[in-house]
Amino acid sequence: MATLLRLTIAFAVAIVFTFLGLLGEVRTAIAQTSISEQNLVEAQNLAEGLPDYDSFGTQTFGDIRFNSEGSIDGVPDDVAEQMGYDTGRSWTAGARAADVLKLGDLSGSFYPQQLTISDMERRTGIDTTGLSISEYQGLLQGQSVGSLSSLLGIENFRLDEVAPLQDVFNEAVRPQLEVEAAGQLNQIAQSLGVPADAVPVEAFDPANFIEGELLEYGQQTVGELIATPDLLEGARFGDISIGDSLDILGSYRVEDLPGLENLPLQELDGWQDVVLSEVPGLDAIPFGDFPNPIAAITGGFGGTHDVTYGEKESRVTPTRFSISGSDQAGFRVECAQERGCAYLELQGSGEMAGARWIAGGSGAGQQMVEGGSGLLKMINSGMEPTGRHPFGDVFKIVLTDTTESDGTGNFALYTRFCQRSFFVDLGCTPYFIGPIPVWSTQEEGFVLTGPLDGQGGASSGLEVPPELQQYQSRNLSGSYYGSGRNSQVQMDEECLDGLLSVTPSVQQSGAAENIPIIVEAANKYGLDRAQIAYVLATVRRETGGVGWAPVEEIGRPCDYSGGCGWHGRGYVQLTHDYNYARVRNELGIDVVSDPSLALQPDIAAEILIQGMMKGWFNGIGRGLASYVSDERQDFFNARRTVNVLDRAGEIAGHAEQYYRTLQQCRTLETSRGSVGAPVEPLKTFRTGTLAAQEYGAPRDGGARRHAGQDLDIKQGIDDEAQSYIGGVVTRVGNDPGGYGNYVDIYNAELGVVERVAEGVQLTVGLGDTVAPGQVVSTGESNTGVIHIEYRDSVNSQNQGGFGFGGTYDPVEFLEANGIVERRGNQLVPLINE
């Protein structure tokens, strides 16, 4: 069996804790049955009595503690060796998650391995790059001078340019030099006929000799010293352990070792086995700020916790109406053991009435069921705790025990690992990694089950009643333009596929969305293919950890010239007030009045291209053309256009890959607006419903007024948002706390800005010309409405402002222009008639 595992299992276990983030996206669990007006108050009271899961959106692994002791079984040693770390461990009640979890545990969920030390500084505000190198002992102890130098791309640096490594080298070579100095001193003493300690300093000074030799070594490159085989007695410089040198390196900061702050954790040997708390700053990153941030869960279904039963109850009254089981045994597995099963009896409408969730596990009152698939089914003897999948099949939620005396049930999370690829499908283990305590319920409280769909609740479920949509949270990780091929800019598919093939798989969705936008801007300013290749490699380095989208620096809002607010934004970080002013003056984009414009992909792409070609980012004005063209490709030194030479070797290697791919592309032409943005007859929408607010309606107790008109929609039926007046797109944006994804469209003839908001995916981009009736966004936001506004423009870009001031009543405006007519609660288009 061990041989089979050695030959077939080459993967990392992902002990996935994204349930914390998922819970953070669930404002409340919504009852499975629709809610009528008469029981709306009761439903709202129930929702208000639920735990405040919303706070999990900003929770960190340093905040979370286990409420009971627990353990995770290890896998066989040979399997652990191939996975890169040991999964087994235990913890006591009250232990912090950050002190228990390892990077390998989260590698399939949050992707912490993609983070860099500087990423952690931006996400937390902690000065991680200013910490001592020795603070990162857990990550660095398995590295050697040679491996780390290669990863950092510093082989071409002179040794005296890398002070931390120079001290390590000097410490290693000094004993040898002292021996050489002593030998020369003895020779001179013999020639002078005096004892060694009587040799005049003018004749020979051992200390000066040693310092002189060290200075000469300092003029050689790190790579040359690593490649010299007999340089040190009994050791090679490249083989020196970083872990053994931390007492020397401890006097230096992270930023003193070039490139260390920008090295992804996954590049370091043994990263999987490092505990989260051993990486400063990692345990302070909010769940929503990881490279693979928390995803929204909407439409959670369940029933009321009615009665709590212990294990003895089912001996007298056999369980019926079970809703627990597994994907192999089904989810109606009744208690099948003589010793009895603990369970919760639920109440609700339909099949939820009398439904029973049976406790899972191998202990008293718990039940195991068949689980797993393929060859990996053999793990844990093919058995797993009975339970359900309200969050999909990545997790299993298990009722672990009940207490009849106080009417409570405790739930825990289990997960598994799978090995599936194009070449081999080994299946999945049973859900055996756990239990990880997650929550408890009480009688008359809510139990989240997911829909009773025969899949353990793993399907998307029923539509959420509009009356309760206020309790759902927004998708914190949504992008402005959707994902993958839904970019508002299109390019040759074969060319894009080639570029994606040399991009890490976890980045491909974001790359597919952003590469066409970047190529479009590059074409506008006449970059050749070699220059485009280097630009793409740079964006991969600068933003790859967050999916190729423009990023905003956090934690250092006041560290740049001009005061607070001029921190980094964009594909490459635009910083300092004078650079923001340069963008305004040279590109005509007023990022001084509104710095957040630098985060819009179209604008960020223009800043990226102009900034790299003109040397804005390096402060010396030397641009990319000085290093790279189709005739000359100095991809290594091209890094000086952005950030001296940190990660220069890595980026150069990626640029070579992109250049080879671009050379094979038939065309680099791009197009906009034609895909995913059809022109259709205007639709009739309902207004004046509970979910759809009227223009001018009071908000926040009357402190504010509703600046637009909401149109009630139904998911999948009328959830395409259209422009009523057409014009030119002057802004696309995202406002998680209000508008969601929105687009501003300026109609020059009417002299107004139309804002269409609260869509899921925008189908038009900055600069597009939009026709009346053209679809500008698709999908139902969790507000259940489309929001439209008409307002005066507020700047030279003809963008709309914010707030109630400067707005027009949308219905009156559209009626006055003969576009719609309000008939009762219907907004009926006239231009279709």
- Shape descriptor: flat
Distance between the termini: 73 Å
Return residue spans where pLDDT drops below 50 for at least 5 consecutive residues.
Answer: 1-57, 294-300, 420-424, 458-486
- From the helix content, strand content and strand pairing, which structural class follows? alpha+beta
Radius of gyration: 31 Å
Q: Total strand count, please? A: 31
Strand content: 15-25%
Helix content class? 10-25%
Number of contiguous helices: 19
For the sheet with most strands, the description reads: 9 strands, antiparallel
Mean pLDDT reading = 77
Outline the structure in words.
With 833 residues, the chain is an alpha+beta fold. The protein is built from 19 helices and 31 strands. Strands 21, 22, 23, 24, 25, 26, 27, 28 and 29 form a 9-stranded antiparallel sheet that branches. A 4-stranded antiparallel sheet has the order 5-4-3-13, with no helix packed on it. Strands 8-9-12 form a 3-stranded antiparallel sheet, with no helix packed on it. The longest helix has 30 residues, at 163-192. The model is unreliable at 1-57, 294-300, 420-424 and 458-486 (pLDDT under 50).
Secondary-structure topology with pairs:
Elements: H1 2-8, H2 19-24, H3 40-48, E1 70-72, H4 77-83, E2 89-91, H5 117-124, H6 137-140, H7 145-152, H8 163-192, H9 206-219, H10 222-227, H11 246-249, E3 302-309, H12 313-316, E4 343-347, E5 356-358, E6 368-370, E7 383-385, E8 395-403, E9 408-415, E10 418-420, E11 425-428, E12 433-442, E13 446-448, E14 489-491, H13 493-501, H14 508-524, H15 529-543, E15 551-552, E16 569-570, H16 577-587, H17 601-614, H18 648-663, E17 670-672, E18 685-686, E19 698-699, E20 704-705, E21 709-712, E22 720-722, E23 727-735, E24 740-747, E25 752-762, E26 769-770, E27 775-780, E28 785-791, E29 807-808, H19 810-816, E30 820-823, E31 826-829
Antiparallel strand pairs: 1-2, 3-4, 3-13, 4-5, 6-7, 8-9, 9-12, 10-11, 14-17, 15-16, 18-31, 19-20, 21-28, 22-27, 23-24, 23-26, 24-25, 25-27, 25-28, 28-29, 30-31
Helix pairs in contact: 8-9, 13-14, 14-15, 14-17, 15-18
